[in-house]
Design a protein that fits this description.
This protein is mostly helical. It has one domain. It is 69% helix and 0% strand. The protein is built from six helices and no strands. Helix 3 packs antiparallel against helix 4 and helix 3 packs across helix 5. The chain is elongated.
């Protein structure tokens, strides 16, 4: 079992599913199953952090480069909000993690600013200027619909 895990992951997953369906618990590769299930949960946290990073970066661009606003920024903000809301609805246990992840996501947003704008991220606030409610509020900022 472990050898198949190392040599053909897809075949291993199919095999493990078959063992589960057939209730052949003695054949299951528990060590690797536990590792894979844990990694699935971490992927959900990572996705939340990444989406928040993109969203925060675009909110910062919107705020600090008002003369360069575009429909693309507006729709990226809206898309990320919908994806975040959907992710949390599908994984309600991520809710407690949302406040904790904002500071990490803010760092990703600052990297986006540094990569996509002439703004030096070091000139921006050291802490995220938005709370979670603002970040996912479809009416924030109030001039988002101006474009």
């Amino acid at each position: 079992m472990t050898n198949l895990y190392a040599t053909d992951f897809y075949a291993w997953t199919k095999e493990q599913v078959d063992f589960l369906r057939e209730k052949k618990l003695d054949y299951l590769d528990f060590t690797n199953l536990i590792e894979e299930i844990e990694s699935l949960g971490k992927q959900q946290q990572q996705e939340l952090k990444n989406r928040l990073g993109i969203l925060i970066g675009h909110l910062l661009k919107w705020q600090y480069q008002s003369n360069r606003r575009s429909r693309s920024w507006k729709y990226t903000i809206q898309e990320q909000r919908l994806q975040i809301i959907d992710l949390i609805e599908q994984n309600p246990s991520l809710k407690p993690y949302q406040e904790e992840v904002i500071s990490k996501a803010y760092q990703l947003g600052l990297l986006l600013i540094g990569r996509e704008t002439p703004i030096n991220p070091k000139t921006l606030p050291s802490q995220c200027p938005y709370n979670f409610e603002q970040i996912i509020d479809i009416s924030f900022p109030d001039d988002l619909e101006s474009i």
